[in-house]
Structures are given as structure tokens and as C-alpha cells.
């Protein structure tokens, strides 16, 4: 008998809070964390972002990072979120757990500052390998004393969701007893300049699913879930926060940075998540959409949502207007928000929405909606057409 995947711990740091409780409070107060950049040194100050107002120095001190450890910002944010998740799951000995980490930026926030001076300043050479996303995972694992399986998922903006899928598969295959899975990414010049070159950044606060949307706001953050089999969690009398009952991954195979007009990859990912959870579409209470507020994504995802749910549309919203688009961390951050929606029995609002898209027959929720929530579908779609959906269930 295949065991259900129970979630026994979660941790998060984002532009709206430094832990789960702070994030919940901001969601409940409909308070966005997107605003003027203060820490990232960039000429593009005209683009609002979901920046976490904690300096690297503050994080190093708070996390008691050793001076000889080569920590980048993504690793620091990752440790902060991971420690909260492990603490809630009552895990004090981490040597036997598996760690699956999603990241795309990795340590580029450091390498982009130092690459011109590597030959002149030998003390910076330890950061050369930080360019590789796996460096971030290894740094976090070493700090947390994780000696079991450590692996990295880097599938752009679906990385965090795919890390959770990988963690669930490890448990079901009997390759691990406990998995810490999620994602971390930080703001960097590389990503800000890159998204700007694609002309999909907005100089205004983003408006997911709005007819007049003008692009996304970038963000940074980290979030992790502790995954265990239901049998193990109950045997240890742990509090189960929810279940990861379904998941799906598919690919548009359409364009390097754009989704297809029919939302085929999105549709297939959602369909696979529902099928793996063995539920019908009408059983979903709430869909936490990818909803980046770009012209392409919202139209493509919206069409896919209509294809999946037909006349039985659930409540729908994107929470990216709270945090900004946190890239590889998005799937994990929104997994936390999905679980909080189940716990609080509330639909989180789609901030800044004003006008319905004429191509779609639905509008997202603009206020907090109290509702009985049993199942939440959470979407995360990445460049390269990589599309993932997660299905969370109430206890």
C-alpha cells in the first residue's frame, strides 16, 4: 500500500515576513511586500521588487554562520527557512534526512560581483563554484549537518515545486524516510537584467490576470516543507499540517521563455496532479495560480485552467502581488501559502486586480474569502516550458 505524503513542518522567508506567522499575518492583512529596492545595487531602481529587508550581515549573525563558510544570499535565506521547517517537524538529528533543493540563481549574486577580481583577490576564489546551483544546496546541507542524500533541482521557476515532487517520489520509492524539500532564490543583477531584456518587468505593482497587466515584479525568498510518510508521522505523534496527495510535471515544448497559446503544458501538469491524487477537478476548492502578470503567462494559464475545470471553476488567485515572482522559490513559497489557506479556511486575494481579461470567463478573488477548503491546486511554470502542479489536501 502506497503511503500518503504528510507534511510535518514548513518554514518560509519572503518579502512579507521572516517566518510562517509573519507571512500569514501579511496575507490576512492583504499587505504586499513589493516596493523600492534598498539592498540590491542596480541602476534599475524603477522596477519595484519583493526584496527581503535583511542584509547578508544580519543573516550571517542571526544564523551563526562560521566565517570560513562561503555563504551566498540564496544559501542564507535557505538556511533560515529550513531551520524553521525542521524545528516545527521536531527534527533535531538531520544526518539521516534527504535534502532536495530547488534554485536557479544559486550563488550568482556573489559571482557577478567578484568575477572581474578573482585573479587579483585570492580570498574570493572560494566563491567561483558558487555559480553552480548545487553549491547552494551543498552549503545549506553542510550548515544543517545533513549527510544523507542531497540533490538540486534547477528547472527555472518550477524548481521549488519539482523539488517537492522529487521528495515525494523518494519517500514513495523507499529511498528516504524524511525529506526536506523546497527552494531558494535571491535577487541579483543577473535576473533583474535578464527579465528586463525580455521586456516583461513592470514599473508598476503587478496585476495578475488583469486586462491591463504590464509585467511581473521580481522577488526573493525561500521555503521548505518536511515530508514524511503518513505512517511514520503518526507513529511519532507528529502534527500533520496537510498532505501532498498529487503532483504532475509536463512541458509545453513550445518556446524557450513563453507558454503556448493553448496552455498545453499547464493543462497536462494540472491533469497529471489530479490523476495522481485520484480526484476529479470539481473537488478542488482553490487554485493558487502561477499568475505572473505577464501578457503571455496569464492568458496561457487562464486558458489551461478553463480547459481543466470547464464549468466547475474553483476559487482562483495569484499571490505573486504579495511577494513578487521568487523564481525557483515560488513553488515552495506558494506551497506554504496553499497549506495556510487550508489551515485558515481562507482564499488569499489577488492584489491589484481591476479588470477581467476578455479572453477568460473568470476573474480572480480580490478579497479574502472564507471557504471550506479541502483541496488546493498550486501551479508553478518555468522557462523552457517546464510546468508543475501540486495538489494539497486537508488533514
How do the helices and strands line up, and which of them pair or pack?
Layout: E1 5-13, H1 20-28, H2 56-63, H3 73-88, E2 98-102, H4 108-114, H5 133-143, E3 150-153, H6 159-172, E4 178-185, H7 189-197, E5 221-229, H8 230-235, E6 242-251, H9 264-277, E7 286-288, H10 295-309, E8 315-317, H11 320-323, H12 330-344, E9 346-347, E10 369-370, E11 375-381, E12 386-393
Parallel strand pairs: 2-3, 2-4, 7-8, 7-11
Antiparallel strand pairs: 1-5, 1-6, 4-5, 6-12, 9-10, 11-12
Helix pairs in contact: 2-3, 3-5, 6-12, 9-10
- What is the CATH architecture term of the largest domain? 3-Layer(aba) Sandwich
Order of helices and strands: EHHHEHHEHEHEHEHEHEHHEEEE
* Average pLDDT number: 94
Total of domains: 2
Number of strands: 12
Question: Could you please describe the fold and organization of this structure?
Answer:
This protein has 395 residues and is α/β, with parallel strands linked by helices. It folds into 2 domains: 231 residues, Peroxisomal Thiolase, Chain A, domain 1 (3-Layer(aba) Sandwich); 149 residues, Peroxisomal Thiolase, Chain A, domain 1. Helices cover 32% and strands 18% of the residues. It is built from 12 helices and 12 strands. The two termini are 19 Å apart. 55% of the residues are buried.
Entry keywords:
12 helices; 2 domains; alpha/beta; Peroxisomal Thiolase, Chain A, domain 1; globular; two-stranded antiparallel sheet; 395 residues
Summarize the structure.
By secondary structure, the protein is α/β, with parallel strands linked by helices.
Amino acid at each position: 500500500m502506497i503511503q500518503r505524503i504528510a507534511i510535518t513542518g514548513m518554514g518560509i522567508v519572503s518579502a512579507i515576513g521572516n517566518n510562517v506567522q509573519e507571512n500569514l499575518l501579511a496575507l490576512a492583512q492583504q499587505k504586499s511586500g513589493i516596493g523600492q529596492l534598498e539592498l540590491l545595487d542596480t541602476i534599475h531602481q524603477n522596477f519595484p521588487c519583493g526584496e527581503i529587508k535583511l542584509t547578508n550581515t544580519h543573516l550571517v549573525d542571526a544564523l551563526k554562520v562560521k566565517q570560513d563558510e562561503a555563504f551566498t544570499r540564496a544559501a542564507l535565506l535557505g538556511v533560515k527557512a529550513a531551520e524553521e521547517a525542521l524545528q516545527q517537524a521536531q527534527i533535531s538529528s538531520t544526518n539521516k534526512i534527504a535534502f532536495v533543493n530547488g534554485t536557479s540563481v544559486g550563488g550568482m549574486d556573489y559571482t557577478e560581483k567578484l568575477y572581474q577580481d578573482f585573479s587579483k583577490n585570492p580570498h574570493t576564489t572560494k566563491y567561483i563554484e558558487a555559480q553552480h546551483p548545487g553549491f547552494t544546496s551543498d552549503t545549506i546541507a553542510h550548515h544543517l549537518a545533513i549527510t544523507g542524500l542531497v540533490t538540486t533541482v534547477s528547472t527555472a521557476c518550477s524548481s521549488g515545486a519539482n523539488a517537492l515532487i522529487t521528495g515525494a517520489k523518494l519517500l514513495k520509492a523507499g529511498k528516504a524516510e524524511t525529506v526536506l524539500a523546497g527552494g531558494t532564490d535571491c535577487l541579483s543583477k543577473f535576473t533583474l537584467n535578464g527579465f528586463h531584456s525580455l521586456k516583461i518587468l513592470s514599473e508598476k505593482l503587478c496585476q495578475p490576470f488583469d486586462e491591463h497587466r504590464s509585467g511581473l515584479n521580481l522577488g526573493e525568498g525561500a521555503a521548505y516543507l518536511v515530508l514524511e510518510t503518513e505512517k511514520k508521522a503518526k507513529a511519532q505523534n507528529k502534527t500533520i499540517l496537510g498532505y501532498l496527495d498529487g503532483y504532475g510535471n509536463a512541458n509545453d515544448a513550445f518556446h524557450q521563455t513563453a507558454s503556448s497559446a493553448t496552455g498545453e503544458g499547464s493543462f497536462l501538469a494540472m491533469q497529471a496532479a489530479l490523476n495522481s491524487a485520484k480526484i476529479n477537478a470539481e473537488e478542488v476548492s482553490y487554485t493558487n495560480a502561477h499568475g505572473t502578470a505577464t501578457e503571455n503567462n496569464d492568458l496561457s494559464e487562464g486558458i489551461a485552467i478553463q480547459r481543466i475545470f470547464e464549468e466547475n471553476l474553483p476559487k482562483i488567485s495569484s499571490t505573486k502581488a504579495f511577494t513578487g515572482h521568487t523564481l525557483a522559490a515560488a513553488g515552495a513559497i506558494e506551497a506554504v501559502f496553499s497549506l495556510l489557506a487550508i489551515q485558515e479556511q481562507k482564499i488569499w486575494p489577488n492584489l491589484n486586480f481591476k479588470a477581467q481579461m476578455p479572453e477568460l470567463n473568470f476573474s480572480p478573488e480580490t478579497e479574502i474569502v472564507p471557504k471550506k477548503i479541502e483541496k488546493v491546486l498550486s501551479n508553478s511554470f518555468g522557462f523552457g516550458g517546464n510546468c508543475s502542479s501540486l495538489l494539497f489536501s486537508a488533514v
